Amino acid sequence: MAPFIHATAEVADTAKIGEGTRIWHQGQIRPDAQIGKNCNFGKGVFIDSGVHIGDNVKIQNYVSVYHGVTVEDGVFIGPHVCFTNDMRPRAINVDGSPKAADDWVLSTTLIKRGAAIGANSTIRCGITLGEWAMVGSGSVVTKDVPDYGLVFGNPAKLHGFVCPCGERLEKIKEEGNSVLAKCPACGRQIEILKVSWTGAK
Question: What CATH architecture applies to the domain 4-167?
Answer without folding.
Answer: 3 Solenoid (2.160)
